[in-house]
Amino acid sequence: MNKGFVIITGAAGGIGQAFVNEFANAGYGIIGIIHKNKPAAPQNQNVHYITCNLAQTTQDTEYAAKIFAQIRAVFNQNGLKGLVNNAATQILGGVDSLTRKDWQETLNVNLLAPFLWSQAFLQELETSQGSIINISSIHARLTKKNFVAYATSKAALSGMTRAMAIDLQGKVRVNAIEPAAIETEMLKAGFSGKPELYSKLEACHPQQRIGRPEEVATLCLSLIDSKLDFIHGATISIDGGISGQLHDPD
Length: 250
Hints:
9 helices, alpha/beta, single chain
């Protein structure tokens, strides 16, 4: 069964791979956009990986046109049902240390790429009554020290999602998902040798655990695959309840 294709940027990461598996198992063809190393595709599934520099597609129109042509050659007449703008970069630094280069890279990958890729495939998505899902972050609303560039880009991405929905009306549905801490290999590596800090992070969430990539993927699939057509321009939190909890000093 092939329900059409879904483009997933950042497909090699922990959440990206969960998206690939979830959509492939649901009968979609996958076009996974990766930066470097190609992950293994699920067995007996229609998964295609394309390597590209996402930031370069925002600056070099000829390069972008070549990448978009490669993608169109894959889904061809099968229809494009979804674009999941999942790729992101997280450059940490404060107001006194972030450089112009840091800002430009952050905004290119986290904000401009989702817009330009949505724009590039708008006609195909409209034809198939498809959806765009922008993977934002809890940092769009709640952040912490040294996340200035990342938090700003995610706040802008959530805002852009709402604005795009107004602009596109009923042509293509656009929604955003705002995850809190998700249990990826990258997150766990950051806590290597510090199990007590990892346990503290889990306890910060009212759900008493960290989110799983599969849960974000299931939510994303439901927004594209189901008949929830009235969900449009929404920014949906998947955060274990942490965004509602006030932390006072002990």
